[in-house]
Every structure is written in C-alpha cells, then in structure tokens.
C-alpha cells in the first residue's frame, strides 16, 4: 500500500537487530486517519472471506484492528497479555515469545468473546517470526472457529512468520512488505517488482 510505504519511508527508523521503529504513527503515537485508511484496505482485501470477528493482541494490534472492525462492521477482540496464568477455566490461552521484548507472555481471550460459528480475521501490527499470530491461531483452533485470514500492517518478509502462515494454507495480506532492513533504510518487496 503506497500510502503506508511512503509513511514508513518518511517516519520509520531502523534499529539494531532488524527492528523497524514506527512509534510516530503506529506503536506509540497513533495516526487515526492513516489507521482508518488501513482498515479500509483490510476490508477490501478480505471482502470475500465472510469475516464475523477480528482477533488481535494488545496493545499495538488494537488500533489497526479497531479500524478494520469499524470498516467491516464486526466486533474486535484483543487477547490480553499476562506474565503467566493460573485460573484459565474461562479462557483460551497460548504462550507467545515476544520478539522485541524477549520475554514469554501468555495471551488469553475470554471464551465469551469467540463463538463456535465465527470466522475470524487475525490482525496485528507486525509479522516477524510469527509468534503472536501463531498464538492467535492456537486460540482459534482451541475455540474451534475457522480462520478467514491473517492481515498485518507491516511484515518483515525475511523473517519466519510470512512463510509459516502461508505453509498453513492461510490467506495472508500485509499492507507493507519489507524485503530487508539495513543502515541505509528500508527496502520493500514492491521495490523489486
Ligand atoms: P512475531 O511474533 O511475529 O515475531 O512479532 C510480532 C510482534 O513483535 C508484533 O506484534 C510487534 O509488536 C513486535 N515486532 C516484531 N518486529 C518488530 C519491528 O521490527 N518493529 C516493531 N515496532 N515491532 C516489532
């Protein structure tokens, strides 16, 4: 998506460890108008999938997921992060390793907020090694719901998550796909087309 790629070029910075910092519009300060446009793009890309609910993870997935939910007129549920859970009877849970924070978190969704006939769209801010998305896929499986697809704002295609999602036969869409990150900046997959 050109609008998003332009914004990443303008405001993104590359940190050591192949991390892209976009806290100017996505991860700390949030640009609502841009998020609204991204939500509209997710709606267009998943229009044929019969989405009934959006799942994401707190906190950075919430803004794009909310705008997708607004555009698609479906509820948005964010998994909550905890250090470790004891009482899990009413929850679907999965353990997720955080790429940027390098800690394990349990993520959980209350069973009341996923229904057996749901077709869920998973949305997140970044797809890197795929741990966060995999955790949500595990929750969807435990809840016995079908997965309409995975939509991410930014994927780092050179890391494992992209292929991991495709290998499961899941419809994957990234609004910006990064081929490489270096001291010279960001190269998008579309730059090589
Ligand atoms: P994964 O689970 O796919 O390895 O990583 C996904 C999560 O890690 C995202 O939800 C995001 O919060 C964080 N993350 C991974 N890579 C980056 C990055 O390059 N920049 C930022 N800002 N967050 C990232």
UniProtKB/TrEMBL annotation:
Belongs to the purine/pyrimidine phosphoribosyltransferase family. Xpt subfamily. It comes from Secundilactobacillus similis DSM 23365 = JCM 2765. Pfam families: Pribosyltran. Keywords: Cytoplasm, Glycosyltransferase, Purine salvage, Transferase. CDD domains: PRTases_typeI. InterPro entries: PRTase-like (IPR029057), PRTase_dom (IPR000836), Pur/Pyrimidine_PRTase (IPR050118), Xanthine_PRibTrfase (IPR010079). One of its GO terms (biological process) is xanthine metabolic process. This is Xanthine phosphoribosyltransferase. Its main location: cytoplasm. Xanthine binds at residues 20, 27, 156. Gene3D superfamilies: 3.40.50.2020. It catalyses: XMP + diphosphate = xanthine + 5-phospho-alpha-D-ribose 1-diphosphate. Homodimer. 5-phospho-alpha-D-ribose 1-diphosphate binds at residues 128-132.
């Amino acid at each position: 998506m050109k609008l998003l790629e332009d914004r990443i070029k303008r405001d993104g910075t590359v940190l050591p460890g192949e991390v892209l910092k976009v806290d100017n519009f996505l991860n700390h300060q949030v640009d609502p108008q841009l998020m609204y446009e991204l939500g509209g793009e997710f709606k267009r890309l998943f229009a044929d999938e019969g989405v009934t609910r959006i799942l994401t993870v707190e906190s950075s997935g919430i803004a794009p997921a909310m705008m997708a939910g607004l555009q698609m007129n479906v509820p948005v549920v964010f998994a909550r992060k905890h250090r470790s859970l004891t009482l899990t009877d009413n929850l679907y849970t999965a353990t997720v390793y955080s790429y940027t924070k390098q800690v394990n978190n349990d993520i959980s969704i209350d069973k009341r907020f996923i229904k057996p006939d749901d077709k869920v769209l998973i949305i997140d801010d970044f797809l890197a090694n795929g741990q966060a998305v995999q955790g949500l896929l595990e929750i969807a499986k435990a809840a016995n719901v079908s997965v309409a697809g995975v939509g991410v704002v930014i994927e780092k295609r050179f890391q494992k998550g992209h292929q991991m999602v495709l290998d499961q036969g899941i419809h994957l869409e990234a609004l910006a796909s990064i081929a490489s990150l270096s001291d010279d900046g960001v190269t998008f997959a579309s730059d090589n087309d």
